[in-house]
Amino acid sequence: VHPNGRVMYNSNSERTPQGLEVIDLTNLKPPKIASRLQLVSGNEAHDITFSQDGNRAYVAALSHTLVLDTSRPFKPEIIGGIIDPSVTLHHQSDPVTVDGREFLIVNDELNGAAGNGYCPGGGLHVYDITGDLERSPVKVGAFFAPDINVQEGAPTGTAGLTSCTAHVFDIYEKQGLLTIAWFAGGVRVVDLSDLVGVSAGADPTGSVGAGMKEVGHFRFVADHDTWAAKVNKFARDGSAYIFSNDQTRGLDVFRYDSAAPKPSKKGRWMTPAQALERAERLRADPDFDAPDSPVCVIG
Known about the structure:
five-stranded antiparallel β-sheet; four-stranded antiparallel β-sheet
């Protein structure tokens, strides 16, 4: 739903493009489709996030991500897009501002979480969209959770395989944190504050700076499959309760203590070149089946 409360964008999440539905909510008896935005090519919208001011929407569309101008919410326009061979499935794309710079974080739900046989699977890919860069986002790096034993998760993927990949996340700009569910990888808390140190634009093959790092996590040793992990409210000291729904366990509530010792394994921040090399190694694996191939979305 657009921040003005009068417009809703429907993400169909289909492989056959039917267009993003713009729904008028001014009269709920019944709401009506006001228009459709064709997404040019590729797949349909899977997840849509609006900027706080409502002037932009970020559309994760499985095979690609789009940036929309939504300053006229009933008539959205495509102004930018991301095609990244490092990403197998664009599941969610959310913006964040760090020290005046605008970034877009896209999670790769590796192989559609069909059961990929290893952890950490797909990660979080980060693009600079500051100013005019939103029309041609520049990748600055990618974050992957620490390696863990995939066999310790719940076998809910295809053919009973365990799924382990980045999934539903939420960003807390004031705290500089991100919480995310990682299926068999459990619940992860990631620090975004060092994104300000990464470079963009000058060198498209790499970046400098710490990027992102893990500052907390929890996972059960068996039979768990975490879908989403979100915070309702932070305490003054930055601590919070994390609410997580699990496909096997139900609803879990965790306590994140900002003063607790940080984990020794902080995950891995990769340059764009390193992330691409990692993806190419995965595709060379005969047991790996990426669901979609990159397509051109901007004519």
